[in-house]
Amino acid sequence: MNRIVIAGNRRLEYTLIQTVRASVLFQALPEGAIRVYAPRGMRLRDIDRMVRERADQLLQMGKAVDRKLSEDRRNHPVSDGSTIMIEGVPHVIRLSRAGRVRGEVRDGALCLSLPKPEDDPSVRAAIRAVLSARALERIRERLDHYAPKVGRTPGRVAIREQKTRWGSCSGKGNLNFNWKLIMAPPPVLDYVVIHELCHLWEFNHSPKFWSLVEQQMPEYKVWKKWLKAHAEDLYL
Ligand SMILES: [Zn+2]
Question: 65 CA distance to ligand 1 centroid (A)?
């Protein structure tokens, strides 16, 4: 049976399973689900109280379960036939064996040949290499498109694996971009390109800076939000 307890300002729903056992067992499941096994005959209000007392702990346990799950998903996306997002479109990963690493994006697939297609770290490295090259190519293209409109020319342009940043602009006007942007829908990459180009005028996030961004991309807020909401989906 499902029960609800209120702990502070939180509402905890849990599934109670009454069974033949001597003690109470608390279990955290994915997406905030809680399961409680309790000895048959134990009073409901006592069980509720125990859940309430452990509210923090149960929520922490749930978060840990979710973290572990998303980590696992992150750790196993690269077998033959699994998919990866490229420019906002799911592509099938095709792995084959070959003497040296080669890769290309073709017909909705990411085709990779490599000496050890069964070795996860090698596959991952190959994907990263192929997609980083594609990201750099695409970013240069978009910089060429937007730089004259913005009226600034960037210095050196590089691709970086950055954990928390999508792009950055140095004091010297060099721009760095996260290769994972190539997984996002194209307007997201455009937004980051425009954002960094506008830093060549305004080295801050002032209203003046945002109005420059808006001049180039009136709907930029949509893609800025998209990036924030989907940051976790752009992984390898
Ligand atoms: Zn910025």
Answer: 33
pLDDT along the chain (236 residues), means of 10: 87 88 86 86 94 92 82 72 91 94 92 92 91 97 97 94 80 94 96 97 94 97 91 75
- For residues 66-94, b (16+ Cβ closer than 10 Å) or e, as one string? eeeeeeeeeeebbeeeeebbbbeeebebb
**Alpha carbon of 196 to ligand 1 centroid (Å):** 6
Q: What is the rounded CA–CA span in Å between residue 48 and residue 27? A: 14
* The model's pTM: 0.69
Tell me the CA–centroid distance for residue 93 and ligand 1, in Å. Answer: 33
- In the chain the domains, ranked by start, together with CATH numbers, are 2-75 (no CATH), 83-233 (3.30.2010.10)
CA of 209 to the centre of ligand 1 (A): 9
Residue 195 Cα to ligand 1 middle (Å) = 6
